[in-house]
Amino acid sequence: MRPLDLEQVEAPEVVEVLEPEEDFEQFLLPVINETREDIAALTREHGRAYMRNRSKLWEMDNMLIQIKTQVEASEESALNHLQNPNDGVEGRVTKRCEKAEEKAKEIAKMAEMLVQLVRRIEKSESS
Fold first, then answer.
1. Coil, strand, or helix at residue 8?
2. What is the pLDDT of residues 37-60, one digit of tens each?
3. In angstroms, rounded to a whole number, what is the distance separating the alpha carbons of residues 101 and 78?
4. In a 10 Å sphere around its CB, with 0-12 CB exposed, 13-18 middle and 19+ buried, how is residue 121 labelled?
5. In the chain, where are the structural domains located?
6. Whether the predicted pLDDT of 4 surpasses 60
7. Are 125 and 107 in contact (CB under 8 A)?
8. Nearest to 57 by CA among 127, 124, 106
9. CB-based contact 96:76 (threshold 8 Å)
10. What SS3 state is found at 88?
11. Percent helix, strand, coil in the chain (nearest 5)?
């Protein structure tokens, strides 16, 4: 082994070292602040989406109530016509009953479609 010649040894490169507080403030605080803003934005959007879905469900609930009311009214009207055929023509009563029955079937089909839609929305909310 040869002894080191002092003339051959290069001067060490000067490297700036930040203090721990400066390092934290310079690099981590902006990241933390941006993350907080992202979390706040996501929380707001989550709240808005929840309220939109609740509003849709409320509207569908109202529609189902209206449909149910219409079906009940149609049934009652058809029963009244069957029980009181005072118009003297049985053909009219039969036609009205058939129309009421068709309308009830259509309304029941619409109600089933709404129920399926509500189930899909609830399923997507839980995912």
1. coil
2. 999 999 999 889 888 888 888 888
3. 8
4. middle
5. 20-126
6. no
7. no
8. 124
9. no
10. coil
11. 80, 0, 20
